[in-house]
Amino acid sequence: MNLYKEYIKEIEERKGQGLHPKPIDSADLLNEIIAQIKDTNNANRADCLKFFIYNTLPGTTPAAGAKAKFLKEIILGQEAVAEITPTFAFELLSHMKGGPSIVVLLDLALGNDVAIATQAAEVLKTQVYLYDADMARIKEAYENGNAVAKDILESYAKAEFFTKLPEIAEEIKVVTFIAGEGDISTDLLSPGNQAHSRSDRELHGKCMITPQAQEEIKALQAQHPDKSVMLIAEKGTMGVGSSRMSGVNNVALWTGKQASPYVPFVNFAPIVGGTNGISPIFLTTVDVTGGIGIDLKNWVKKTDANGELVRDENGEPILEQVYSVATGTVLTINTKTKKLYNGDKELIDISRSFTPQKMEFIKAGGSYAIVFGKKIQTFAAKTLGIEAPLVYAPSKEVSVEGQGLTAVEKIFNRNAVGTLSKKALHAGSDVRVTVNIVGSQDTTGLMTAQELESMAATVISPIVDGAYQSGCHTASVWDKKAQANIPKLMQFMNDFGLITARDPKGVYHAMTDVIHKVLNDITVDEWAIIIGGDSHTRMSKGVAFGADSGTVALALATGEASMPIPESVKVTFKGQMASYMDFRDVVHATQAQMLHKFGGENVFQGRIIEVHLGTLTADQAFTFTDWTAEMKAKASICISEDETLIESLEIAKSRIQIMIDKGMDNKNRVLQGLIDKANQRIAEIRSGEKPALRPDANAKYYAEVEVDLDVINEPMIADPDVNNKDVSKRYTHDTIRPLSFYGGDKKVDLGFIGSCMVHKGDMKILAQMLKNIERQQGKVEFKAPLVVAPPTYNIVDELKAEGDWEVLQKYSGFEFDDNAPKAAARTEYENMLYLERPGCNLCMGNQEKASKGDTVMATSTRLFQGRVVEDSAEKKGESLLSSTPVVVLSTVLGRTPSIEEYKQAVEGINLTKFAPSHKLLVG
């Protein structure tokens, strides 16, 4: 009983951390526990019963298989356990969510013992996590005249697993808790530097917000035992930033309800709110858990007698409170009137939180149950030869006569499945779509694997063209946590059918490439839909949606996703870029000009940015689409000229071929299939059969933004504005300032070039700048450290072939070595250039960080508090975001440069240029 002894030892260690026993996923450990349960005289028997009943993970975990087998033996009378009657054994099977439990229930339901078969059938009627093999068994038994199989199918056709669930309460009482003022990032709810613990839900829950906040939530629960705690972003948006199921899991752990009495630390039904609503990616995750997200609108922009905005001394709109949601306020959510009340006083209409589809998610305890339920109902009705009765709310289908289609509307219409209308669908329609490309990253991947196990999935859907498991978020440091988690993750995903960054058998060299860069390369059709486990899953080909680990799991298992077709905002350009400007400045200026045009309203939030970049290839265009996550957009689409798209596809083909040459293709030859698809797409464009994706000329947009390149006359910087008197204005990504704002004397403590916001051209700009500075000043001397992390190994290889890597080596004081990767995070930096392993590095903030209180100048996308740099006792850490040349020069000078110094440093350097297309990019 060695494993059991080790488990008991671990339990004692966890007690010291204030933790309960870790849930069991090992079959070997559970079999030792089962052996002790069978031994009625065993001293550990009582504890073993508790572990077996209450602490075993369900789904397709190895432990679930062992548990289901033992329960089957009890039901058949082959084993007798006084504490687990056959009836109780059936109840336990009903909470195991598919996989081995379904196999056992089908064995029993289709067996010869009528009484047992009847009981098993009644349990099966409540289950939704069935896959093709399970349904095939039921169908075969039905066709062979099995009455129990017919009974099960008739129940499934009526969707009784859904209709017999309790109705949603008409009134839900909540007590408010303000988690913070301003935008609340998922990093506050699930910090990146605690990513290693996400699969240990109880341990990870201890990092949500602060220990003090957790105690305040517990106090509210004790004071209001009949109410749910609603977590609120006051004067901000809830859940901006990264796509984190772990963030919602933590909120649910502290404020939700236990999903099953037999599964620990898996909660559902969290309730969250925000003055400016919920970030789209976070709201999807809330839906996964059957929760409620409310756009509170409790602060509004003040207007004068003429209806004009009233602004403060900085030109910012002044907000005034409509109603209070101060911590401890008791409110009532009425799900029938779909209104929010304080006592009898109506506060706001919240019908958007209670659409028919969202009501179904809440009733079923999450969106997965609805997705799988619809699939089972359709299967059962087809097998019985009947029409499925209308049980679920019909999808909303919006079609406007005479109105053209935006780019995203065209993509959704092409990929839609199960629609009733034969007309083209417009924004606002609810659509189920096939997913072409799926990405899983390494800090959420462990949770994706757990979700796949919990929904009993064992193999990737054949609908998916390609899927990739990255290793980028843990690339910086190969520490004990990474060594324990990453090989296990890669093995699981490799077996599941994904292309993996690390080969479990060690056949090819580990790739730590940034996930969205790889997805950008393996997307070979601009009509594709991509789902990825990172908020920066924003491709410059196709339309990509960052998603929580659960939605990624669902896409991998089913090849489908469901969502409304979003509205679009059209972004076009006029004028000419100044010769000394970089395209990153255009990206920042787009946000600044948009906010100015619409009086501070972010029209991008929750919508598609349809950006007409025409002449930029996929690598360069990715800089724009990547940033759209920080613009709070739902996604973005690049409209490209035909020849530019062909060039991008040729680049993609060459990089996919490199992956094949490294040995990364699998037995299904997925990567070769992508090259074949790219060749087909190129042929379609060249022949004129199917030109590059264009919106219709008469498409309707929520708003249109024309960016004036002529007025962008100096580099632009996104500033966290850490000392703004209004706390809600800090860390928002909306404060965009010109370089001259800093007067050429703001101290910079560290520079970072890397992660997903840079491309190969940025690495070449870095090399050119270093040569330029040496030529102008006689030598390159860094007055602040410069950390460089290329996005991919392919880029490193290309730089080596073209001579640029040699330049970087010349000026570097550290170069990564894959044969001896760092085993510990760097805590101190010297004033020199660090060439780090490809991957996320400082941008992720879970391994490497700047020193506390530093001012960091970075090409990153992240300026959230504590992400790249934490506060010190004396000074707030700040991460300013800028172009590659600004970062380089800031580290050489140890301060922000003046505009004159900047112009001199970039003289003659080939910066990332952009010229608006002169072609009319419409269909």
Automatic annotation (TrEMBL):
Domain called Aconitase B swivel: residue spans: 176-405
Any coiled-coil regions, as ranges: none
InterPro entries cross-referenced by the UniProt entry: Acnase/IPM_dHydase_lsu_aba_1/3, Acoase/IPM_deHydtase_lsu_aba, Aconitase/3IPM_dehydase_swvl, Aconitase/IPM_isomerase, Aconitase_4Fe-4S_dom, Aconitase_B_HEAT-like_dom, Aconitase_B_HEAT-like_dom_sf, Aconitase_B_swivel
Gene Ontology molecular functions: 2-methylisocitrate dehydratase activity; 4 iron, 4 sulfur cluster binding; aconitate hydratase activity; metal ion binding
Gene3D superfamilies: Aconitase, Domain 2, Aconitase, domain 3, Aconitase, domain 4, Aconitate B, HEAT-like domain
Keywords: Iron, Iron-sulfur, Lyase, Metal-binding
Keyword RNA-binding: no
Highest rank taxon of the organism: Bacteria
Gene Ontology biological-process annotations: propionate catabolic process, 2-methylcitrate cycle; tricarboxylic acid cycle
Domain Aconitase B HEAT-like: 6-162
EC code(s) of this entry: 4.2.1.3, 4.2.1.99
Domain named Aconitase/3-isopropylmalate dehydratase large subunit alpha/beta/alpha: residues: 409-894
Name under which the protein is recorded: Bifunctional aconitate hydratase 2/2-methylisocitrate dehydratase
